C-alpha cells in the first residue's frame, strides 16, 4: 500500500492514489491538474521515507474534482443577564481533489 502525507492550506492529509480528498480551497479550476511538493512522508510498499521537514524530490499529483462549500455551522454567542446575543453562520470553502500519482 503506497501512501503519502502532504501539507497544504496549513493542514496535513494522508493520501493514497485513487482516493478523493477535501482540502482547503485552491484557486485551480475543475479538471485542472495540481501538484503538491510539500510531502512529509512517503510509504512505498513498506519502505518508509520521512522528510526533514519535506522529502526531497517527492511529489503528489492530483486532479481538481470540484469546488464547493461545507455545510453551514451556526455560531451563537450569548452572555447571561446582559441581553447579548449574536447569531452568525459560516460555510467553509473546499476543493475536492482526486489523487492521481505519488512520486518519490
How would you describe what is shown here?
By secondary structure, this protein is mainly β. The protein has one domain (3-103). Helix content is 0%, strand content 64%. It has strands at residues 3-8, 11-16, 20-24, 33-36, 39-44, 47-50, 59-69, 73-79, 84-90, 93-103. A four-stranded antiparallel beta sheet has the order 2-1-5-6, with no helix packed on it. The chain has a four-stranded antiparallel beta sheet with strand order 3-10-7-4, with no helix packed on it. Strands 8-9 form a two-stranded antiparallel sheet. It is elongated and about 60 Å long. The two termini are 14 Å apart. The model has no long low-confidence stretch (mean pLDDT 95).
- Please, how many domains? 1
Give the low-confidence spans: none
Mean pLDDT: 95
Cα gyration radius (Å): 18 Å
Q: What structural class results from the helix and strand content?
A: mainly beta
| Percent in strands | over 45%
What are the main properties of this structure?
104 residues, mainly beta, four-stranded antiparallel β-sheet
In short:
This protein is mainly β.
Furnish the topology, listing elements before pairings.
Blueprint: E1 3-8, E2 11-16, E3 20-24, E4 33-36, E5 39-44, E6 47-50, E7 59-69, E8 73-79, E9 84-90, E10 93-103
Amino acid at each position: 500500500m503506497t501512501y503519502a502525507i502532504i501539507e497544504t492550506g496549513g493542514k496535513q492529509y494522508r493520501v493514497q492514489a485513487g482516493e478523493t480528498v477535501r482540502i482547503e480551497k485552491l484557486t485551480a479550476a475543475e479538471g485542472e491538474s495540481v501538484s503538491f511538493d510539500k510531502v512529509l512522508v512517503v510509504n512505498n510498499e513498506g519502505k518508509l521515507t520521512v522528510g526533514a521537514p519535506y522529502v526531497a524530490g517527492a511529489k503528489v499529483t492530483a486532479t481538481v474534482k470540484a469546488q464547493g462549500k461545507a455545510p453551514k455551522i451556526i455560531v451563537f454567542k450569548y452572555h447571561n443577564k446582559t441581553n447579548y446575543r449574536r447569531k452568525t453562520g459560516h460555510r467553509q470553502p473546499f476543493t475536492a481533489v482526486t489523487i492521481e500519482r505519488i512520486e518519490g
